[in-house]
Amino acid sequence: MPQDIVTRFAPSPTGYLHIGGARTALFNWLYARGRGGKFLLRIEDTDRARSTPEATAAILDGMEWLGLDHDGDVVSQFDGAARHAEVALALLEKGHAYKCFSSQEEIQAFRDKAREEKRSTLFQSPWRDANPASFPDAPYVIRLKAPREGETVIRDQVQGDVTIRNDQLDDMILLRSDGTPVYMLAVVVDDHDMGVTHVIRGDDHLNNAARQQLVYEAMGWDIPVWAHIPLIHGPDGKKLSKRHGALGVEEYRAMGYPAAGMRNYLARLGWSHGDDEFFTDAQAKEWFDLSGIGKSAARFDFKKLENICGQHIAASDDAALLHDLLAFLDVTGQPALSEDKISRLGAAMPFLKERAKTYPELLEKAVFALSDRPIEPDEKSAKALDAASRGILNELTPHLQTASWTRDELERTLNQFAEDQGTKFGKLAGPMRAALAGRAATPSVFDMMLVLGRDESLARLSDAAQE
Taking every annotated instance into account, which residue ranges of this chain make up the domain Glutamyl/glutaminyl-tRNA synthetase class Ib catalytic (predicted)? Predict the structure, then answer.
């Protein structure tokens, strides 16, 4: 019977959800969800000095916004300390670990001497094979008894087989002298106890995998499938940092990128399915596989992100897009909209969503629907409202008062009026845009009039004509 797939995301709660962490979470989520498996979340909060409840909340909030739902409760690594210590003692009992009484001064002296003699500075404890009868009554750590000869092979689904000579691996500490477990042990115990079958994480953990694999082997546990994914670089090929722009998921949310677009873009960042750039969640779940992940670092490209996000906004269901837009206004602390403005926004959605790459761009196009009278034209559109244009708007209003408020009738009326004025409709459009929206660049005049309705449209045209 095939094994159920279990993946996990295990961030440290020391800050926001980094864009690289979000992609790692996404890859784990896609791999599990596409195979009917489980996606688990563990907060690696063993570093008590740096772990904060606020950072944990930010990580959970970022994952919720991205739509990366996890199975079961969030696991706290710190809460499992007693279990981690239990495994260290079991390794000691099995003879795969030992008590080391060496002081920090003795370890430093060993390394200094090794450096002088130009040999490996990996500490080799004199207590590794010591007789328990010689043990002093003093503090000690518990170290893993790593093999000194041979090789450890990490069979990685992204990097291929990675071979590390065992003489390059130290007898790592499992339990500190105060009885607290180290992170490297905790990760293995947690992954085993949580039933994790696939460890998909950044390739900065590749060296850790060799040491962690020794713990799996010593305990006789199944080794998970390893998949170490390359890090994300900035456009200049250097590790992604603040100088490249936003790093935290919450910053992208605040800038108004849609979550679906972020998922699509992050999935393509280091993974590919042929030449497909734009795809749905359902397609991503179906297509995502470890074999599609490249070995080299991916470069973050804001233009590609915007392009993908624009396609997702355009392809969105109108009602769902309106819901997301209202959530964006709320999370960015903008005033709530009246029912009337929400209704207008919903009615305008079919033409607003075309060619908008972010929510702020969409809202800028929607300014006509969200503004109250009197409409204040901006500097550019105000130029279209000279005395002659106002006179034309004044003459136009009675023609519109008797027109049926349908697109065909409005087009016929305005084109006929323009013809009677000895001009083309294009000449009317500038003053009408200024009157209806206070902007020079707006959706179609006809679209705006249909959304605003007869009374509001005529009132705005009348206001502009009088000034």
Answer: 5-306
Q: Would 101 be classed as within a structural domain?
A: yes
Q: What is the separation of C-alpha 190 from the centre of its chain, rounded to a whole number of angstroms?
A: 24
- In CATH, what number is assigned to the domain containing residue 159? 3.90.800.10
Characterize the bridge pairing of strands 151-156 and 160-165.
antiparallel
Cα radius of gyration (the chain): 32
- Cα separation, 444 vs 449, in Å, equals 9
242 marked ligand binding residue: yes
CATH code, domain with 420: 1.10.10.350
Q: Which domain holds residue 182?
A: 80-186
CB 180 within 8 A of CB 187: no
For the four alpha carbons of 327, 329, 331 and 333, in that order, the dihedral sign comes to: negative
- The question of whether 303 is a catalytic residue gets the answer no
Contact by Cβ (8 Å): 309, 261:
yes
Measured CA to CA, the distance from residue 449 to residue 86 in angstroms comes to 72
- Residue-wise pLDDT for 112-131, tens only, equals 999 999 888 899 999 999 99
Same domain, 387 and 339: no
User: Which alpha helices (H) appear in 139-242, and where do they start and end?
Assistant: 183-193, 206-219
Question: Catalytic residue among 94, 242, 353, 380, which?
Answer: 242
User: How many domains is the chain built from?
Assistant: 4
Tell me the per-residue pLDDT of 247-288, one tens digit each, with 9 for 90 and over: 899 999 999 999 999 999 999 999 999 999 999 999 999 999
